[in-house]
Amino acid sequence: MTTAAPADQRRLLDVQAQESRLRALSRHKLEAQKDPELAASAAVVAQRTSEEHDAAALRAEADAAVAALTAQSVQVQARMKKDEAQLISGQSGANTLQGLQREIEALTLKQTELDDLEMEAMETAESAAAAHAAASAATAAATEAQEAVQARVLAKVAELDAELEQVRGQRAAAADGIPADLLALFETTLAKRGAGVARLFHGTSEGSGLALAAGDLAEIKRAPADLVVFCPDSGVILVRDPEWN
Questions:
Q1: pTM for this model (two decimals)
Q2: Which alpha helices (DSSP H) does the chain contain, by range?
Q3: Number of structural domains found in the chain
Q4: Where is the CT398-like coiled coil hairpin domain (predicted)?
Q5: Of 125, 177, 178, 200, which one has the fewest beta carbons inside 10 Å?
Q6: C-alpha to C-alpha distance for 175 and 186, rounded to whole angstroms
Q7: Domain residues for 81?
């Protein structure tokens, strides 16, 4: 059995109060770190990033189509210039010159088709570029919103960390000078029960919130004032208030 001066036993209530504050602050910190807006903003960024990647792929595909048509056009134009130069030189036979003429006409038609296709491809590429730019802007906006949420959460966590540090100091100050065996009993009970001490007031244990049975109250009444007693229901140390009975 542990004994301690009633005044020292009452000091445990201050330590418990600071412990309760620490636990509440720790819960608030955990809640802040699990802010649903963090996951929600991250999901939006992931979605916008995916959309941007898709838009970039479509833009690259459209640009590649323009480049391919441009390359074909360059080849056709080069062939036409070669044929025209040979035709103008007049150094080939009549059949060859007639063949060159027919080929130039075919190449001219091909160039017209390529010009039309290239124009369509360029319009598609312009639309793809605009869509990509819009998707990039949406990703940037989502990222900015996510960073704002993260900054708010970090600020809240930092605020709670500072308060936790302050309350830890207050808990240590409240425990300073309490006899070691009594404090050790409190800490053991705290670890086992989730609370270390509670007040007994008007026959009710504030550890369990229940009125003690008449027999338990009679037993506590017979106990010396310096004897540490426990709540029969919650198992925590009971500190007898001046109006405990």
A1: 0.76
A2: 6-33, 36-89, 94-175, 180-193, 214-222
A3: 2
A4: 16-193
A5: 177
A6: 10
A7: 35-162
